[in-house]
Amino acid sequence: MSDPRRPLDRLRRAFNRHDLGGLADTFSRGAVLVAPDGVGQDRDEIASYYGAFIEAFPDSRCTVQSLTVLGDTLVAEYTLSGTHQGAYLMPGGGLAPATGRPILVRACSVSTVEDDLIVSHRIYYDQLELGAQIGGSLCFEEDESPG
């Protein structure tokens, strides 16, 4: 059995280099990514998901705080840091234009590995925390405001 930490470490390094091809190669062809702001159902969609984040935060970095391994499943706690320098898609579909503000967001992922590739990657983070740091509006559109 290969070390299940290896593909997650490759993912982190590829993300920190902003290497979307290398990042995609850490996932199996049919991998699934589930995050608060989207789902990716193959390597291309997963790379596109990460690419959108990197466009909004071009100096973004992932720093692992802790890693727990149970068989082929890994739970990672990490922080994402960077500077908001591009449009970011907010909950509800609005775009937050670049603000130049720094972010430091706590996150967690649960990943399943098979044959040295990630087959399932679930990301958890607080969208409100990120939105507050960049100063993005989480408000409803005028015609959608609660009663």
Automatic annotation (TrEMBL):
What's a BP term from Gene Ontology annotated to this protein?
polyketide metabolic process
Q: Which domain of life is it from?
A: Bacteria
Transmembrane intervals:
none
Q: What is this protein called?
A: Putative ester cyclase
